[in-house]
Every structure is written in C-alpha cells, then in structure tokens.
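hey so i finally got around to running both of the ones u sent me last week. sorry it took forever, my laptop kept dying halfway thru and i had to restart like 3 times lol. anyway pasting them below in the order u listed, first the sequence line then the structure token line for each. didnt double check formatting much so if smth looks off just lmk and ill redo it

first one:
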Amino acid sequence: MIILDTALKQRALNNNPIRVGLVGTGAMGIGILNQITNHTPGMVVSAIFNRTIQKAIEAVKYAGISNYDVVGSKTQLENSILNYRTAILESPDLIQGSESIDAVVDVTGSIEFSANLVLKAIEAKKHIILMNAELDATIGPILKVYADKSGVVYTNVDGDQPGVEMNLYRSVKSMGFKPVLCGNIKGLHDPYRNPTTQKSFAEKWNQNPYMVTSFADGTKISFEQALVANATGMKVAKRGMLGPKVEEGAHLKDVFQDLYPKAYLEDGPGIVDYVVGAAPAPGVFVIAKNEDPRQHPYLDLYKAGKGPYYLFYNPYHLCHFEVPMTIARAVLFKDAAVSPLGKPMVDVIAVAKKNLNKGEVIDGIGGYMTYGLCENYEDSINNSFVPMGLAEGCTLTKDIKKDTPITYHDILQPANRRSDQLRAEQTNYFK
C-alpha cells in the first residue's frame, strides 16, 4: 500500500487528481471529506450529495472549503468541476451523469437508497467505494456481479475493521501462512441495547444513536464479519459466532491459544469471529497456521511463539483516515480492499430484540425491535430467514418471541423495493 502515496503525488504533479463523488455527510462522511481535502494530494472531492443540503454545506465549511456551488444540473456540475470548485448536488443522479467523476463513495449506511445509488453508479462505470457494511453484507455479492460486468471495482474500505482484517489476511497469506480465523475485538456486546440506552454516548461523540446501538447490540460486527467471510470464503462456527469473553484487558497474544479449540481451526475454510474484552481494542486479528517446520525456529526466535498456530493483529482501526487509500487502490490499480469472492458465505439475519406483536412494523438496524446475527448463508436461505438489512419496514404477520429469528413466513414486505428485488436476484443467481 505504500506505493499509493507515490502514485497520488504523481497525479498531483500532473494536475490530474482522482475525482470523487461523496454521498452522505454524517460523521464519517465529514471525516472523509476533510481527509481528502486537507491531507490527500492527487485526489479531490468534486461532488457531494446529502439528503439535507444544509448539512452538506456545513461539511464543506468544516473541511475549510470556501469555493463551492449548489448545483442542480449536469452542466452546472461540469462547470464547477472544471473550475476546481466543490459541487453540492440537489440530486445524487448528477454524480452518475458526470463524465469527470472517477469513483462514488457511499457513506450513508442506508439500504434501499444506496441500492439504487450503487446500481446506477455501476451502470455509469464509476468505481464503487462503500463505507456501508449494511448494504454490502445484504446484497453485495450481486452488486459485485454487476460491477464485474461493467468493468469497475466494487469494494468496502480500508480503515474500518473489515478492511484492516483483509489487509492483514492478505499479508499473512503472502508470507506462506494459512489463515484459519479472522477476528474482531469488541469492548461491549449486549444485544438488548437500544437508542435510548445509547443516547448519551451518541451525543458525546456526535453520532447517530441508531448507528451507535448497532455497534453495541452486535449487529454492526455481524455485518462486518459477514463481509470478511464473503471476501475470504470463511464461515461462522455457529449462529452468532462464538464470541468468547476474556478478562478485561487480557492481551490477545497471551490467551488466543485457549479461546478456540483446534476443532474450529483444523478443517474447512476457516471461520470469522470476535472476542469481547481483550486488548488491544479496538483492533483486529488473524490466527494462521504455518505448516513448514523449517520456519518454526525462526518464528520462535522472532517471538511469535512455538506454533503451528500464530497470532497476527493490528491494534487499531482508523476508519475514515484510510478511505482515500481505498479510492486510490480502486482507481489506479483496480484493486479492492474488501470484495465478495462470489457466492455469499455468511448472512446477517434479523432476530427479535424483545417480544414482538403481530401487526407491528419493524424499525430496522440499531432500533428497538431487532438485532442482527451472523448465520452461514446456506442455513439462512434454507430457513427463509429475513436479512437484517431488509427487515426495516416489514409488517409482522404473527407474534415473535424474544431472541427468535424472523422468517419470510412471519412478515409482509413493503412493495417494490429495489433492495428486495436485488436480494431475490442474488438468491437465484447463486443457487
């Protein structure tokens, strides 16, 4: 990845920056905008769309951008780009219509809106950069099929946990190890948290309480680990993953040998999982096997242990700071940070957070009614489980007990959602 800085500097010297269309100016979107504008030579955010224009204006001001225009037509957008100004768009469709935009970055966390956005961008031959694990884990494999046909890169991002895990996974494989587990480190996991319990934390960090709830109740980590599974061919050891808890602050390198019985590591494609309470949080890790006994003395010398299982970890993830690197990888080298291999391996299913009643409309991700759990894809399909990403807006046709997975037999879906259509297409495509 170090080569990216050299390539970007050359783009800057050639006065030929990568031009980015940014969709979503929440906390992460603002961070990406600032990172590109003030710290990434050879790249510019040329166009921004947010559902509320005023929030987009506040975002550009936060990043120190004074030369911006609010535009409502393709001609206005192209003029703005030609004059090195930032265009704030009245419609997201303008991004797809611009010949100047190289890549679209989705930072919305939405499903239906983003399904339409991403599909149109792929058709317009824009590289797709997702900071939207929710969409990616739900219909990413079929969107990747469309992207491949269009000749563009479809990827999730460096910096967030899946991207950091995948970089570590690829590095470990390149050294001749066999990764058997890709893991995430969490400080808290309580599936019954809700926007009320998380309100003060969200306010402290200027975050959406629903998004913060999805972190606490395990939905977000389920989406993230599903992405890693779909990018590596790994599965989960059981519904919801194993998720061992350790003594608060215990360092992962000292305890990892005891967390996972070898039965989970020896056979099959490997597993994705998470650990609660370990240091270094909020890091990620890979457990990998080295099957060359000639290498074992060297690894022991280098303080990696006796083997044959070895721990590799990154003690942090820096989210939006590394997103420009993902954009550069896609545009300059056609390389994806995190992208589905093909058929989905792991799904994220909707489970009742409390007793639910017939006639209720599900409030969706990070809400009061459901949380998401990883399930192996074949089991999810065979049981007709409702994906967490598609649960919002569905009406229950029967009572559902707390902690029970919701099936398609239990709901009525909203009519004519593009995301539901793509999900059905994905199911049929990967039969």
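and the second one:
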Amino acid sequence: MIESPATLPELRQFLRENLAAGRRNHFGNVRESWVALAEDYFWDEKHQTWRLDFLTRHGVVPGRQRVLDLSSGCGQFVLLALQRGYQCEGLEPDPWRKVFVERKIDLSGHPPGWKANFHQGIGEELPFEDDTFDYITSFQTLEHVEDPKRVIAEMVRVTRVGGAIHIMCPDYRSTFEGHYQLPWLPLFPRPLARTYLKFMGRPVMGLETIQYVTRPRVLSWIAQAETGKRFLVSDEDRAIFENGLRRKGIPRIPGVYWLWRTRAIIRDLGRRESSVSLSIRVLSK
C-alpha cells in the first residue's frame, strides 16, 4: 500500500522522490536540474495546453466527445482537459501515479468525481468496450509497451467510427536517446547498446523497457491492426508544417516538407531524438 501524502507540499515531494527514483533505477544520471524540470512538468497542467490543440484540430468539442489519454502518467493532461470541459479519461499502469492523481484531486479542490476518470491498466488489454472513445492520445508511450502492435489494435478497437487516434513517440532511427540523454546509434543493436551503457556507467534496466519504434514500424503495425475497421493515416508533423505555410500565404511545393525534415535531422545529430507523430482516422467498419 502506497502512503498518501497529507498536504500539497508533501505531495510535491512525493512526486519528486518517485520521479527521481524511477530515473535513477532505469536510466541513471539524475541531475538536480532534471529533477526540478521533471517535477514542474508533471505537476503543472500549463505544460499540456499545446496538446489541446490536437483535440481542436480533430473536431473534438468540450462536453461532447469522449477522450482517452493512454498512459496518462501523473494526470496533468487529463486534469487540464477536464478543467476545459472535455470528457477526458486516463489509463495508467503505474500504481504510485494513480495515488498521486487521486490525492492531487483531493488537495487541489477538484471535483471528487474526477477520480473515476482515471483507470489502472495496460494498453495491450484496454478495459473498455468496442467503440467507446472519439479520440485517443498516446504521448511518448508506445516505446515502453510490451507489444506495440497489440496496443495499436486495441486503440483502434475502442475508437468509434469518425474518431481519431494520435500517436507520438520517438523514432529510433535517430542519433540520440532521450531517456538516457546520450548520443545513440540508429536502431542500436542491443548487445552493443548494453556494453555502451555499462561503459558510460549507466544502468541497462531502462534499455529493457524500450521498444525500438520507428515511423515505418508504426505504420506497419497500424496496417496490421485486425479490427474490421477502415482507417486513414496522416502525418501530424507534415500537417502542422503545411498549415504554417498556408497561414503565411506560401504555396505548397512538392518536396519542401522532406527538405525541412532532413535539415532538422542533420541539425539534431547526436543532440536530439527524432519523433513520430501520426493520426489514425477511423472511417468505417
């Protein structure tokens, strides 16, 4: 049984200690600066406002459609969405995070009924009926599940026709590993990666929790989702880029987006991981 903190300062300390312990055990190199940034990010809902833009872009209206945040973590996105009037729920496997969210609701004066919006479970076995949600968001989650293909199929299963799924995750063809904050070989062979981590004085436990997700692999898993539903996949990064050009009155030129992506990859070599950002629109059964 996880002891529940009694005050807001104690709850923040609870958050801080658990974040630092998880980081230390899995990835090592727990700097005080990282702990401070992580504590602020997972505590303050203001850092999630940009994610609400995706709800708007996909036609999700507060109070009408039902939203699921898959691996909702410390609940900051779900809490912000609820405050903005969305019907939003979260699913999270980690017990201490559920304790944190429920206590935060109590101590922050949020409606007690919001606790029912947070569920404990895993993405491979979503505890929901078919066609339950209008929109599902999966943010930095797919690289940590045991079976990404099954998780994607489960998300499609519980999404209603006309609804959408937004998947964001790292692309392990890049030259930086964001969890360890280390330069990384694209699709680093695991035996070599373990040797490298040991040489750098880092625990290998975190590597065992990581799936080497890439854009082509995610697209393949989506295509293999046997749910009896038809869907359309689109690249969110490309949509944002082209919408930006449109707002500036710049005509769409073939190949410009991929030139921009290539420039970003070169700029970020060894310093920042590439990402996958895909939307799945469910068209029909």
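quick thing i noticed on the 2nd:
The chain has a mean pLDDT of 93.
anyway thats it, ttyl
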